[in-house]
Amino acid sequence: MEKNDILLQVSGVSKSFPGVRALDGMNLSVRRGTVHALMGENGAGKSTLMKILTGLYQRDSGEITLDGVPLETHTISAVIAQGISMIYQELNPIEGMTVAENIFCGKEPCRVKLFYVDRAAMNRQAAALLEKLGVIGISPTAKLHTLSNAQKQLVEIAKAISNDSKLIIMDEPTSAITESECQRLFETIKRLQASGMTFIYITHKMDEIFSICDEVTVMRDGKYVDTRPVSEVTHDSLVAMMVGRAITNVYPKQKAQIGETVLEVRELCAGKSFHNVSFELKKGEILGFAGLMGAGRTEIAEALFGTRPITGGEVFVEGKKARIGTPRDAIRLRMAMLTEDRRLTGCLINSKVYDNILTLMWKRLRGPLGIDHRKGKQICNEQIGRFSIKTTGPDQRMRNLSGGNQQKVLLARWLLTEPDILILDEPTRGIDVGAKYEIYQDMVRLAQQGKSIIMISSELPEVLGMSDRILVMHEGEQMKILDAAQADQETIMRYASGIA
Fold first, then answer.
1. Less Cβ around it within 10 Å: N or C end of the chain?
2. Is 435 exposed, middle or buried (0-12, 13-18, 19+ CB in 10 A)?
3. Does the predicted model carry a pTM greater than 0.70?
4. Signal peptide location in the record (predicted)?
5. pLDDT tens readout for residues 141-158
6. What CATH homologous superfamily does 273-496 map to?
Protein backbone atom coordinates (compact mmCIF):
# COMPACT_ATOMS: atom_id res chain seq x y z
CA MET A 1 0.00 0.00 0.00
CA GLU A 2 1.22 3.51 -0.77
CA LYS A 3 1.31 5.76 2.27
CA ASN A 4 -1.01 8.33 0.66
CA ASP A 5 -3.63 5.63 0.14
CA ILE A 6 -3.97 4.95 3.87
CA LEU A 7 -6.86 6.70 5.61
CA LEU A 8 -6.68 4.88 8.98
CA GLN A 9 -3.50 3.41 10.45
CA VAL A 10 -3.53 1.43 13.71
CA SER A 11 -0.05 0.45 14.91
CA GLY A 12 0.79 -1.75 17.90
CA VAL A 13 -2.38 -1.00 19.85
CA SER A 14 -2.81 -2.94 23.11
CA LYS A 15 -5.55 -2.94 25.74
CA SER A 16 -5.86 -4.96 28.94
CA PHE A 17 -8.66 -5.45 31.44
CA PRO A 18 -8.30 -7.21 34.83
CA GLY A 19 -7.18 -10.74 33.96
CA VAL A 20 -7.67 -10.29 30.20
CA ARG A 21 -5.41 -8.93 27.42
CA ALA A 22 -8.06 -7.92 24.90
CA LEU A 23 -5.67 -6.43 22.30
CA ASP A 24 -2.03 -7.35 21.89
CA GLY A 25 -0.07 -5.15 19.48
CA MET A 26 -2.95 -4.88 16.99
CA ASN A 27 -2.29 -3.42 13.52
CA LEU A 28 -4.80 -2.27 10.91
CA SER A 29 -4.41 -0.32 7.67
CA VAL A 30 -7.55 0.88 5.88
CA ARG A 31 -7.21 2.37 2.42
CA ARG A 32 -9.36 5.39 1.59
CA GLY A 33 -12.39 4.76 -0.60
CA THR A 34 -12.60 1.03 0.25
CA VAL A 35 -14.95 -1.26 2.14
CA HIS A 36 -12.62 -3.04 4.56
CA ALA A 37 -13.91 -6.16 6.32
CA LEU A 38 -12.82 -6.89 9.89
CA MET A 39 -13.28 -10.53 10.88
CA GLY A 40 -12.51 -12.77 13.81
CA GLU A 41 -14.18 -15.07 16.27
CA ASN A 42 -16.22 -13.63 19.11
CA GLY A 43 -13.66 -12.59 21.69
CA ALA A 44 -10.99 -11.89 19.05
CA GLY A 45 -10.90 -8.21 20.05
CA LYS A 46 -12.93 -6.58 17.26
CA SER A 47 -15.32 -4.82 19.64
CA THR A 48 -12.50 -3.58 21.86
CA LEU A 49 -10.65 -2.14 18.87
CA MET A 50 -13.80 -0.40 17.60
CA LYS A 51 -14.50 1.05 21.06
CA ILE A 52 -10.99 2.48 21.09
CA LEU A 53 -11.44 3.95 17.60
CA THR A 54 -14.72 5.59 18.67
CA GLY A 55 -13.50 6.93 22.01
CA LEU A 56 -15.37 4.57 24.34
CA TYR A 57 -12.13 2.95 25.57
CA GLN A 58 -8.63 4.36 25.87
CA ARG A 59 -5.72 2.30 24.57
CA ASP A 60 -2.86 1.29 26.85
CA SER A 61 -0.26 1.68 24.10
CA GLY A 62 0.13 2.06 20.35
CA GLU A 63 -0.58 4.74 17.78
CA ILE A 64 -3.62 5.60 15.64
CA THR A 65 -3.64 8.10 12.77
CA LEU A 66 -6.46 9.29 10.53
CA ASP A 67 -5.39 10.93 7.27
CA GLY A 68 -1.83 10.98 8.58
CA VAL A 69 -2.78 12.95 11.71
CA PRO A 70 -2.78 11.38 15.23
CA LEU A 71 -6.36 10.49 16.18
CA GLU A 72 -7.59 12.08 19.41
CA THR A 73 -9.70 9.38 21.12
CA HIS A 74 -10.22 10.79 24.62
CA THR A 75 -13.91 11.51 23.97
CA ILE A 76 -16.59 10.22 21.61
CA SER A 77 -17.40 13.73 20.40
CA ALA A 78 -13.72 14.34 19.57
CA VAL A 79 -13.63 11.22 17.39
CA ILE A 80 -16.82 12.22 15.58
CA ALA A 81 -15.43 15.71 14.98
CA GLN A 82 -12.32 14.18 13.38
CA GLY A 83 -14.42 12.15 10.94
CA ILE A 84 -15.21 8.68 12.36
CA SER A 85 -18.77 7.47 12.97
CA MET A 86 -20.02 4.03 13.98
CA ILE A 87 -23.35 2.33 13.32
CA TYR A 88 -23.87 -0.31 15.98
CA GLN A 89 -25.51 -3.72 15.63
CA GLU A 90 -28.06 -2.74 18.30
CA LEU A 91 -29.36 0.52 16.87
CA ASN A 92 -30.16 3.22 19.43
CA PRO A 93 -32.51 5.64 17.67
CA ILE A 94 -34.71 8.04 19.62
CA GLU A 95 -37.98 6.39 18.65
CA GLY A 96 -40.28 9.27 19.59
CA MET A 97 -38.39 11.83 17.52
CA THR A 98 -38.53 12.42 13.77
CA VAL A 99 -36.03 11.28 11.17
CA ALA A 100 -34.63 14.82 10.86
CA GLU A 101 -34.38 15.22 14.64
CA ASN A 102 -32.44 11.95 14.90
CA ILE A 103 -30.05 12.94 12.12
CA PHE A 104 -29.27 16.36 13.58
CA CYS A 105 -29.59 15.54 17.29
CA GLY A 106 -27.16 17.83 19.15
CA LYS A 107 -26.34 19.89 16.07
CA GLU A 108 -29.76 21.28 15.07
CA PRO A 109 -29.72 24.33 12.77
CA CYS A 110 -30.96 27.40 14.65
CA ARG A 111 -32.39 30.76 13.67
CA VAL A 112 -29.68 33.36 13.99
CA LYS A 113 -29.88 35.14 17.36
CA LEU A 114 -33.33 33.66 18.07
CA PHE A 115 -32.20 30.56 20.03
CA TYR A 116 -34.70 28.10 18.59
CA VAL A 117 -34.44 25.26 16.11
CA ASP A 118 -35.07 26.06 12.47
CA ARG A 119 -37.18 22.99 11.77
CA ALA A 120 -37.85 23.90 8.15
CA ALA A 121 -34.10 24.10 7.46
CA MET A 122 -33.48 20.88 9.40
CA ASN A 123 -36.13 19.02 7.37
CA ARG A 124 -34.71 20.39 4.10
CA GLN A 125 -31.19 19.30 5.03
CA ALA A 126 -32.42 15.85 6.11
CA ALA A 127 -34.29 15.44 2.82
CA ALA A 128 -31.11 16.38 0.91
CA LEU A 129 -29.08 13.78 2.83
CA LEU A 130 -31.66 11.05 2.20
CA GLU A 131 -31.72 11.99 -1.49
CA LYS A 132 -27.91 11.73 -1.58
CA LEU A 133 -28.27 8.20 -0.21
CA GLY A 134 -30.83 7.38 -2.89
CA VAL A 135 -33.43 6.72 -0.21
CA ILE A 136 -37.05 6.71 -1.34
CA GLY A 137 -40.07 6.60 0.94
CA ILE A 138 -38.64 8.03 4.18
CA SER A 139 -40.01 11.42 5.17
CA PRO A 140 -37.84 13.71 7.32
CA THR A 141 -40.89 14.28 9.53
CA ALA A 142 -41.66 10.56 10.07
CA LYS A 143 -41.27 9.27 13.63
CA LEU A 144 -38.51 6.68 14.00
CA HIS A 145 -40.84 4.08 15.54
CA THR A 146 -42.75 3.90 12.24
CA LEU A 147 -39.66 2.76 10.29
CA SER A 148 -38.27 -0.72 9.66
CA ASN A 149 -34.85 -1.75 10.99
CA ALA A 150 -33.38 -1.32 7.52
CA GLN A 151 -34.78 2.21 7.23
CA LYS A 152 -33.41 3.07 10.69
CA GLN A 153 -29.97 1.96 9.50
CA LEU A 154 -30.23 4.35 6.54
CA VAL A 155 -31.10 7.14 8.97
CA GLU A 156 -27.96 6.24 10.97
CA ILE A 157 -25.90 6.45 7.76
CA ALA A 158 -27.45 9.84 7.01
CA LYS A 159 -26.48 10.95 10.53
CA ALA A 160 -22.89 9.83 9.89
CA ILE A 161 -22.79 11.77 6.62
CA SER A 162 -24.15 14.86 8.41
CA ASN A 163 -21.08 14.62 10.68
CA ASP A 164 -18.83 14.93 7.59
CA SER A 165 -17.46 11.46 8.36
CA LYS A 166 -14.48 10.18 6.43
CA LEU A 167 -14.85 6.68 7.85
CA ILE A 168 -18.05 4.82 8.80
CA ILE A 169 -17.80 1.65 10.91
CA MET A 170 -20.71 -0.79 10.48
CA ASP A 171 -21.19 -3.61 13.00
CA GLU A 172 -23.26 -6.59 11.76
CA PRO A 173 -25.53 -4.27 9.71
CA THR A 174 -27.60 -7.08 8.13
CA SER A 175 -28.32 -9.15 11.27
CA ALA A 176 -31.98 -8.06 11.50
CA ILE A 177 -33.03 -7.13 7.95
CA THR A 178 -34.41 -9.06 4.99
CA GLU A 179 -32.49 -10.22 1.91
CA SER A 180 -33.99 -7.49 -0.31
CA GLU A 181 -33.16 -4.86 2.35
CA CYS A 182 -29.59 -6.19 2.42
CA GLN A 183 -29.26 -5.58 -1.30
CA ARG A 184 -30.55 -2.00 -0.94
CA LEU A 185 -28.07 -1.42 1.90
CA PHE A 186 -25.23 -2.74 -0.27
CA GLU A 187 -26.28 -0.42 -3.09
CA THR A 188 -26.17 2.52 -0.67
CA ILE A 189 -22.70 1.54 0.55
CA LYS A 190 -21.41 1.20 -3.02
CA ARG A 191 -22.88 4.60 -3.95
CA LEU A 192 -21.15 6.26 -0.98
CA GLN A 193 -17.92 4.40 -1.68
CA ALA A 194 -17.96 5.73 -5.24
CA SER A 195 -18.16 9.26 -3.79
CA GLY A 196 -15.02 8.62 -1.70
CA MET A 197 -16.46 7.33 1.59
CA THR A 198 -14.50 4.62 3.47
CA PHE A 199 -16.06 1.80 5.49
CA ILE A 200 -14.97 -0.75 8.08
CA TYR A 201 -17.47 -3.59 7.77
CA ILE A 202 -17.81 -6.13 10.60
CA THR A 203 -19.77 -9.31 9.88
CA HIS A 204 -19.84 -13.04 10.55
CA LYS A 205 -21.57 -13.72 7.22
CA MET A 206 -18.96 -14.94 4.75
CA ASP A 207 -21.08 -14.28 1.66
CA GLU A 208 -21.21 -10.57 2.49
CA ILE A 209 -17.42 -10.32 2.47
CA PHE A 210 -17.33 -11.45 -1.14
CA SER A 211 -20.34 -9.28 -2.12
CA ILE A 212 -19.40 -5.91 -0.68
CA CYS A 213 -15.80 -5.78 0.58
CA ASP A 214 -12.47 -4.95 -1.09
CA GLU A 215 -10.04 -6.09 1.60
CA VAL A 216 -10.29 -8.17 4.75
CA THR A 217 -8.30 -8.10 7.99
CA VAL A 218 -8.51 -11.08 10.34
CA MET A 219 -7.94 -10.93 14.11
CA ARG A 220 -7.42 -13.81 16.52
CA ASP A 221 -7.00 -13.68 20.31
CA GLY A 222 -6.51 -9.89 20.25
CA LYS A 223 -3.74 -10.07 17.65
CA TYR A 224 -3.39 -9.15 14.01
CA VAL A 225 -3.33 -12.21 11.73
CA ASP A 226 -3.34 -10.94 8.14
CA THR A 227 -4.81 -8.48 5.62
CA ARG A 228 -5.60 -9.63 2.10
CA PRO A 229 -7.57 -8.48 -0.94
CA VAL A 230 -10.91 -10.27 -0.96
CA SER A 231 -10.13 -11.50 -4.47
CA GLU A 232 -7.25 -13.55 -3.01
CA VAL A 233 -9.13 -15.40 -0.24
CA THR A 234 -11.67 -18.22 -0.10
CA HIS A 235 -14.28 -19.21 2.44
CA ASP A 236 -12.03 -21.98 3.75
CA SER A 237 -8.90 -19.83 3.97
CA LEU A 238 -10.80 -17.14 5.92
CA VAL A 239 -12.12 -19.72 8.37
CA ALA A 240 -8.63 -21.15 8.85
CA MET A 241 -7.22 -17.67 9.56
CA MET A 242 -9.97 -16.91 12.05
CA VAL A 243 -9.86 -20.10 14.10
CA GLY A 244 -6.23 -21.09 13.56
CA ARG A 245 -7.18 -24.42 12.05
CA ALA A 246 -9.12 -25.78 9.09
CA ILE A 247 -12.76 -26.71 9.62
CA THR A 248 -13.41 -29.18 6.85
CA ASN A 249 -16.99 -30.07 7.79
CA VAL A 250 -18.87 -26.83 8.56
CA TYR A 251 -22.06 -28.68 9.56
CA PRO A 252 -21.14 -31.73 11.69
CA LYS A 253 -24.60 -33.28 11.41
CA GLN A 254 -24.73 -36.96 12.23
CA LYS A 255 -27.69 -39.29 12.06
CA ALA A 256 -29.42 -39.77 15.37
CA GLN A 257 -31.81 -42.58 16.17
CA ILE A 258 -35.17 -41.10 15.14
CA GLY A 259 -37.88 -42.42 17.45
CA GLU A 260 -41.55 -41.93 18.18
CA THR A 261 -43.47 -38.66 17.93
CA VAL A 262 -42.98 -36.46 21.01
CA LEU A 263 -44.77 -33.31 19.81
CA GLU A 264 -47.76 -33.10 17.48
CA VAL A 265 -49.25 -29.80 16.32
CA ARG A 266 -52.67 -29.80 14.62
CA GLU A 267 -54.09 -26.79 12.77
CA LEU A 268 -52.39 -24.34 15.15
CA CYS A 269 -53.33 -20.66 14.85
CA ALA A 270 -52.26 -17.45 16.61
CA GLY A 271 -54.37 -14.51 15.45
CA LYS A 272 -52.98 -12.95 12.28
CA SER A 273 -49.44 -14.25 12.95
CA PHE A 274 -49.95 -17.73 11.47
CA HIS A 275 -52.78 -20.18 10.80
CA ASN A 276 -53.41 -23.90 10.31
CA VAL A 277 -49.88 -25.09 11.03
CA SER A 278 -49.55 -28.88 11.47
CA PHE A 279 -46.44 -30.99 12.01
CA GLU A 280 -44.89 -33.74 14.10
CA LEU A 281 -41.55 -33.67 15.92
CA LYS A 282 -39.91 -37.00 16.65
CA LYS A 283 -37.45 -38.13 19.31
CA GLY A 284 -33.85 -37.43 18.22
CA GLU A 285 -34.95 -35.26 15.28
CA ILE A 286 -33.82 -31.77 14.31
CA LEU A 287 -36.75 -30.08 12.54
CA GLY A 288 -35.66 -26.90 10.78
CA PHE A 289 -38.02 -23.94 10.28
CA ALA A 290 -37.26 -21.86 7.17
CA GLY A 291 -38.90 -18.78 5.69
CA LEU A 292 -38.36 -15.11 5.04
CA MET A 293 -38.48 -12.54 7.83
CA GLY A 294 -42.09 -12.13 9.02
CA ALA A 295 -43.14 -15.57 7.76
CA GLY A 296 -44.33 -16.65 11.23
CA ARG A 297 -41.50 -18.95 12.32
CA THR A 298 -40.70 -17.20 15.62
CA GLU A 299 -44.41 -16.73 16.30
CA ILE A 300 -44.97 -20.51 16.13
CA ALA A 301 -42.15 -21.01 18.64
CA GLU A 302 -43.63 -18.37 20.95
CA ALA A 303 -47.06 -20.01 20.79
CA LEU A 304 -45.61 -23.43 21.61
CA PHE A 305 -43.70 -21.96 24.55
CA GLY A 306 -46.61 -19.96 25.96
CA THR A 307 -45.45 -16.42 25.23
CA ARG A 308 -48.00 -15.87 22.43
CA PRO A 309 -51.72 -16.75 22.81
CA ILE A 310 -52.93 -19.74 20.78
CA THR A 311 -56.23 -18.88 19.09
CA GLY A 312 -56.93 -22.20 17.43
CA GLY A 313 -55.72 -25.76 16.96
CA GLU A 314 -54.29 -28.37 19.29
CA VAL A 315 -50.89 -29.38 20.70
CA PHE A 316 -50.08 -32.90 21.89
CA VAL A 317 -47.00 -33.77 23.94
CA GLU A 318 -46.15 -37.47 24.33
CA GLY A 319 -49.60 -38.25 22.90
CA LYS A 320 -51.50 -36.18 25.49
CA LYS A 321 -53.34 -32.96 24.70
CA ALA A 322 -51.40 -30.03 26.20
CA ARG A 323 -52.62 -26.69 27.50
CA ILE A 324 -49.85 -24.12 27.07
CA GLY A 325 -50.77 -20.67 28.30
CA THR A 326 -47.48 -19.62 29.90
CA PRO A 327 -43.78 -20.57 29.73
CA ARG A 328 -44.26 -22.27 33.09
CA ASP A 329 -46.73 -24.66 31.39
CA ALA A 330 -44.19 -25.36 28.63
CA ILE A 331 -41.36 -26.00 31.11
CA ARG A 332 -43.64 -28.36 33.02
CA LEU A 333 -44.08 -30.27 29.75
CA ARG A 334 -40.26 -30.55 29.53
CA MET A 335 -39.83 -27.90 26.84
CA ALA A 336 -37.09 -25.26 26.63
CA MET A 337 -36.57 -22.27 24.33
CA LEU A 338 -33.57 -20.19 23.27
CA THR A 339 -35.08 -16.89 22.13
CA GLU A 340 -34.13 -15.01 18.98
CA ASP A 341 -32.57 -12.03 20.81
CA ARG A 342 -30.30 -13.40 23.52
CA ARG A 343 -29.42 -9.97 24.94
CA LEU A 344 -32.98 -8.66 25.13
CA THR A 345 -34.98 -11.76 26.14
CA GLY A 346 -32.37 -14.36 27.09
CA CYS A 347 -29.46 -13.10 29.16
CA LEU A 348 -29.47 -11.38 32.51
CA ILE A 349 -26.85 -9.24 30.83
CA ASN A 350 -25.55 -7.37 33.89
CA SER A 351 -25.58 -10.43 36.16
CA LYS A 352 -22.95 -13.10 36.72
CA VAL A 353 -22.55 -16.29 34.70
CA TYR A 354 -23.49 -18.09 37.95
CA ASP A 355 -26.89 -16.34 38.16
CA ASN A 356 -27.58 -16.83 34.45
CA ILE A 357 -26.93 -20.57 34.50
CA LEU A 358 -28.83 -21.22 37.73
CA THR A 359 -31.75 -18.80 37.36
CA LEU A 360 -34.24 -21.68 36.81
CA MET A 361 -32.67 -23.80 39.57
CA TRP A 362 -33.14 -21.71 42.72
CA LYS A 363 -36.00 -23.82 44.13
CA ARG A 364 -33.97 -27.00 43.77
CA LEU A 365 -30.98 -25.36 45.49
CA ARG A 366 -32.97 -24.02 48.41
CA GLY A 367 -32.30 -25.76 51.74
CA PRO A 368 -33.29 -25.10 55.34
CA LEU A 369 -30.65 -22.37 55.60
CA GLY A 370 -31.38 -20.76 52.22
CA ILE A 371 -29.69 -21.22 48.83
CA ASP A 372 -26.94 -23.84 48.84
CA HIS A 373 -24.36 -21.76 46.95
CA ARG A 374 -21.67 -24.39 47.37
CA LYS A 375 -23.76 -26.89 45.42
CA GLY A 376 -24.73 -24.12 43.00
CA LYS A 377 -21.08 -23.31 42.23
CA GLN A 378 -20.41 -27.01 41.66
CA ILE A 379 -23.30 -27.31 39.19
CA CYS A 380 -22.29 -24.07 37.47
CA ASN A 381 -18.69 -25.21 37.01
CA GLU A 382 -19.89 -28.56 35.66
CA GLN A 383 -22.00 -26.75 33.01
CA ILE A 384 -19.10 -24.43 32.14
CA GLY A 385 -16.97 -27.51 31.48
CA ARG A 386 -19.70 -29.44 29.69
CA PHE A 387 -20.28 -26.65 27.16
CA SER A 388 -16.66 -25.42 27.01
CA ILE A 389 -17.73 -21.90 27.99
CA LYS A 390 -14.80 -19.49 27.78
CA THR A 391 -15.06 -17.49 30.99
CA THR A 392 -12.86 -16.48 33.90
CA GLY A 393 -15.36 -18.28 36.15
CA PRO A 394 -18.91 -18.22 37.55
CA ASP A 395 -18.48 -14.66 38.85
CA GLN A 396 -17.75 -13.09 35.45
CA ARG A 397 -20.48 -10.74 34.18
CA MET A 398 -22.47 -11.94 31.16
CA ARG A 399 -21.95 -8.64 29.34
CA ASN A 400 -18.21 -9.41 29.19
CA LEU A 401 -18.67 -12.76 27.39
CA SER A 402 -18.63 -13.13 23.60
CA GLY A 403 -21.92 -13.79 21.83
CA GLY A 404 -21.09 -17.47 21.34
CA ASN A 405 -20.30 -17.97 25.00
CA GLN A 406 -23.45 -16.12 26.05
CA GLN A 407 -25.42 -18.55 23.88
CA LYS A 408 -23.69 -21.51 25.50
CA VAL A 409 -24.59 -20.17 28.96
CA LEU A 410 -28.25 -20.02 27.92
CA LEU A 411 -28.07 -23.55 26.54
CA ALA A 412 -26.46 -24.70 29.80
CA ARG A 413 -29.27 -23.00 31.75
CA TRP A 414 -32.02 -24.74 29.81
CA LEU A 415 -30.38 -28.17 29.89
CA LEU A 416 -30.54 -28.06 33.70
CA THR A 417 -34.35 -28.18 33.41
CA GLU A 418 -33.92 -31.61 31.75
CA PRO A 419 -36.08 -30.83 28.68
CA ASP A 420 -37.09 -33.36 26.05
CA ILE A 421 -37.96 -30.69 23.46
CA LEU A 422 -35.66 -27.75 22.66
CA ILE A 423 -36.77 -24.79 20.54
CA LEU A 424 -33.71 -22.91 19.24
CA ASP A 425 -34.58 -19.61 17.54
CA GLU A 426 -31.62 -18.32 15.48
CA PRO A 427 -29.13 -20.19 17.73
CA THR A 428 -26.04 -18.94 15.85
CA ARG A 429 -27.04 -15.35 15.00
CA GLY A 430 -24.11 -12.97 15.49
CA ILE A 431 -21.74 -15.82 16.36
CA ASP A 432 -18.43 -16.54 14.66
CA VAL A 433 -17.68 -19.70 12.70
CA GLY A 434 -15.73 -21.39 15.49
CA ALA A 435 -18.51 -20.86 18.07
CA LYS A 436 -21.12 -21.89 15.49
CA TYR A 437 -19.34 -25.19 14.99
CA GLU A 438 -19.36 -25.82 18.75
CA ILE A 439 -23.10 -25.01 18.97
CA TYR A 440 -23.73 -27.43 16.08
CA GLN A 441 -21.78 -30.13 17.92
CA ASP A 442 -23.90 -29.50 21.03
CA MET A 443 -27.07 -29.89 18.93
CA VAL A 444 -25.83 -33.15 17.40
CA ARG A 445 -24.92 -34.53 20.82
CA LEU A 446 -28.32 -33.58 22.27
CA ALA A 447 -30.16 -35.22 19.35
CA GLN A 448 -28.11 -38.38 19.80
CA GLN A 449 -29.12 -38.35 23.48
CA GLY A 450 -32.76 -38.46 22.37
CA LYS A 451 -33.63 -34.77 22.64
CA SER A 452 -35.96 -33.36 19.98
CA ILE A 453 -35.02 -29.99 18.47
CA ILE A 454 -36.88 -27.31 16.54
CA MET A 455 -34.29 -25.00 14.94
CA ILE A 456 -35.36 -21.69 13.40
CA SER A 457 -32.74 -20.12 11.15
CA SER A 458 -32.54 -17.46 8.46
CA GLU A 459 -29.39 -19.05 7.02
CA LEU A 460 -30.43 -21.65 4.45
CA PRO A 461 -27.08 -23.50 4.43
CA GLU A 462 -27.47 -23.92 8.19
CA VAL A 463 -31.04 -25.21 7.86
CA LEU A 464 -29.99 -27.69 5.17
CA GLY A 465 -26.81 -28.69 6.95
CA MET A 466 -28.30 -29.36 10.40
CA SER A 467 -31.91 -30.50 9.85
CA ASP A 468 -33.48 -33.89 9.28
CA ARG A 469 -36.65 -32.29 7.90
CA ILE A 470 -37.51 -28.68 7.03
CA LEU A 471 -40.85 -26.89 7.51
CA VAL A 472 -41.12 -23.87 5.18
CA MET A 473 -43.35 -20.89 6.04
CA HIS A 474 -44.64 -18.02 3.89
CA GLU A 475 -46.58 -15.08 5.36
CA GLY A 476 -48.06 -17.09 8.22
CA GLU A 477 -48.91 -20.10 6.06
CA GLN A 478 -47.26 -23.51 6.16
CA MET A 479 -46.09 -24.25 2.63
CA LYS A 480 -44.26 -27.59 2.76
CA ILE A 481 -42.34 -30.04 4.92
CA LEU A 482 -39.23 -31.24 3.07
CA ASP A 483 -36.73 -34.03 3.67
CA ALA A 484 -33.46 -32.10 4.20
CA ALA A 485 -31.45 -34.74 2.34
CA GLN A 486 -33.55 -34.18 -0.80
CA ALA A 487 -33.93 -30.37 -0.53
CA ASP A 488 -31.78 -27.49 -1.81
CA GLN A 489 -31.70 -23.72 -1.34
CA GLU A 490 -33.57 -23.00 -4.55
CA THR A 491 -36.47 -25.28 -3.60
CA ILE A 492 -36.74 -23.79 -0.10
CA MET A 493 -36.70 -20.22 -1.48
CA ARG A 494 -39.47 -21.01 -3.95
CA TYR A 495 -41.73 -22.19 -1.12
CA ALA A 496 -40.59 -19.37 1.21
CA SER A 497 -41.47 -16.84 -1.49
CA GLY A 498 -44.89 -18.40 -2.03
CA ILE A 499 -44.27 -19.27 -5.68
CA ALA A 500 -43.84 -23.06 -5.46
1. N
2. buried
3. no
4. none
5. 999 888 877 788 788 888
6. P-loop containing nucleotide triphosphate hydrolases (3.40.50.300)
